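Exam review. A common question shows you a sequence with its structure tokens and asks you to describe the fold in words. Practice with the pair below. Do the first one on your own.
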Amino acid sequence: MSTQVQTWHPLIGTPSALHGTCAMALAAEVFVEHDHFDAEPCYDWSAGKIINRHLRDDLHIADHEPVTYDTPGIDEDPSGCAVSLASGSVDGKPSRIQSILESLDYDCSGMSRHQLDWTFLAHHVELAYRRYHAHDASTRSVTENMRLELSEFEKAEALAIYANSFGIRGIMGPSGHACDVLLSTSNCGGISMTLLMLAQVAGIEARMINTINHSTVELKVGGRWLWSDNIVGSRALILASYQEMLADPHDIVCMTPLELKYHTDLVPHYRAPYNFSTTRRWKGPGWKPESATDDTNNGIGYSLAYTPETAAALYPGREQVFHVPKSEKPMLALNKLGGWIYASVDGSQGISMRKVFHIGECADNPVRSACIRVFVNTDANEDDYTATLNGSPLKCEGKRSCYEHMHAIYFAINPTALQIGLNECIISTAANSSAQLLVYPDVLENSPAPVLDQKIELTHDSFSCNEISQSQQF
């Protein structure tokens, strides 16, 4: 008797006409309820802390080619990086940025709009270093190459201080591109984009963190992520990562009372997506041709939520602590959805997709209950969906609404069926049904491939960009 070999295929898609093809993940979240909390809460809204025992070390953030001086702008290539409003000429006259650079004796002949932006940013990097040097009490000679005399930390701090100095101080311009912000002012989003771009031009690795109500940046200094907030009066570069701040803001001695209030009362209620689209394309709200369509909200869909499964990819080698709201039991959601864009995969002819998740050793605080919720179309019939875990069938617990406007089918998981290491959950739809399964861009390019015996490639027309309410933390 021959045994049929299952063939799994990657699911790929192009969420936007302005982005390349990327791997997609099944929109399914696994919840595990532990026996007890591991520590007392440090927030008024929190019921307690849970140490993450489910670190998955095999997930890594894919490397992408960064923006450089020679990267084409969006005016040259539909998939190019955003360019500033100020780099565009008006009535055939030199652009505002070109005029400024030429007044400073830069030769702008033959420069593209992006190259004008890059040169303008490089000039401001030098200005940031000079301003920092001028206020530095240490005795150092003022030379053209003073940037070479600043330490790695000093360079990062100089850029953070400089970017923050352009915070709202008048009427905001129509663009959040760094060059436009440097010629006017902006809110936290524009200031964060400015710091990110300045850092990239200066050769410092950086990433944005966009919550539902605030934007900040992390800079990699000496192999360690340091967090830069832009709330008025705050220290520009904090000697801790965003993850360390989330664990307990009161442990960060340099945080101001205003920052403590803001980050203990408002921000921690929301999962924090790390925006990786900006590492390869400056997808800030700068200028773009009217013919260009970007249905991923300027690239914000390429993001990664800080969750128990993704924690090791974001912060390798660190202990991770997660907070649980008072309304929840000691429960963790291992793999929250990444980003705000998603697509529907047609399951009307019968399809199987899988979600792989990791369970760690937790004998000291065992899992008491678990479930998986699979995001589906609004008019889905729960009877059209089945699920297995490691080959054993799961009991369907019905369809519920979540994230305000989305719907999911819930399947109960018996904790005894969980195995230490990788667990495989397969979701199948019935043939001749109206079933659909939701997917989203997978920054981690998670393996193994999610689709059984079918090759599916989604186009950008398949995607929507409805924002998910993030009121529910882990």
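Now try the second one, then compare your answer with the model answer below.
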Amino acid sequence: MSKTPVPKGFTPVHSARFGKKGSQKLAGYEADGGYASWKKVAKGWKSGDFTPAKIIDMVKASGLRGRGGAGFPTGLKWTFVPPKEKRGGKPVYLLCNADESEPGTFKDRLIMEEDPHQLLEGMLIASAALDVKHAYIYIRGEMVRCAEVLNEAVAEAYAAGYLGKDILGSGLDIDLTVHRGAGAYICGEETALIESLEGKRGHPRIKPPFPAVSGVWDCPTVVNNVETLAAVKFILDNGPEWFKGMGRNEKNTGPKLYCVSGHVEKPGVYEAPMGIKFMDLLALCGGMKGGKKLKAVIPGGASAAILTAAEVADLPMDFDGVAAAKSMLGSAAIMVMDETTDIPKAVTNISKFFAHESCGQCTPCREGTPWLNKMLKRLIKGEGKRDDLDLLLQISNQMGNGMTICVFSDAAIAPVISGITKFRDEFEAYLSKAKAPDFALAAPAEVTPKVADRVAEGIHG
């Protein structure tokens, strides 16, 4: 694979070995310093030089936040696991969320395909910190190649003594299993993932209880994203201060993988310090394809609100920066749209995805997502009704604001609300072609700011 450019003065971290011959193999990983931190942890485990508290403190000090969408502080999340004396003899499980399903997202796949051992080493360190004896990688079923590479890497790690019983004479026992899902987007939500791993239908659970207290098999469970867990290895390698020194501020730290697609000259995965300005990232991609003008950007996957060209002109691409613009960084799946983009058609396409992927557990989501898609399809066919836009906003308002168990419904309405409010003239242009009879819509409900705020929190996992 060809390597993408990085900002001047920045040294790649996660992507440093991407494309290198033999990057998937243990021998090459060790030759490049791989498993050095895990060896230090194992060596210092019996002597007390390394303890769970020390590792957690390092991760907390680094400012690492979840890279899967939520952006929750990783070290803080780990502290929610009850201490051993309060667990009633129950084991703790670590689940790696590798169910990369957000449209426009393809960064975790590269880590798993190109450098799987960085993920395994990060998981081993996290497992030691959390007193985990068995960890799982839950991977999207369609990622066949990723699963094959991961299983080969796991076998190599067992053979080398990095996994298994009494690892490197440390007394640590850790097993790891790669589990393939069945391709459901909803299983990217942590509690739906847990249900699926247990062999059930992937339906999100009501919280509380939260997974840290009662997760898989009713045991304390931590669910972290691929990129998040891989970052743990680099924090141990270089120290928390090194990690903090890379971001825009102390709340947005470390290196970040950005997935850029759409109307750019060179789409791909780009690594940069957390908080790089959007326009600088666009420049790394070679600018707009064909020299066309930028029209809109979806900054964090299909579940993020659409931003206009003006809104991203000086936008720092980190959790807080994008949230301040009333969208979310999410999985950093950046979809770039040029001046030729038909926004109503783009929103309709996204609505089709959400209508298909709703798990159907909650009525507002089960009924609302196909309803939105049906109305939008009618609109772009030139068969819309006079008050359809207000009705779309009303339906969206009734689907969001915490009306459902998980935030799938809030995610589904984000592109609809932002698309209509920011590009209403394009939607109204389709209405001008409409032949369907008008009808009167009674008192549409106000679309409250809570919709944007809740989606901007990025709590969909």
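Model answer, second protein: The first helix runs from residue 26 to 31. The first strand starts at residue 92 and ends at 98. Full marks require stating both points clearly.
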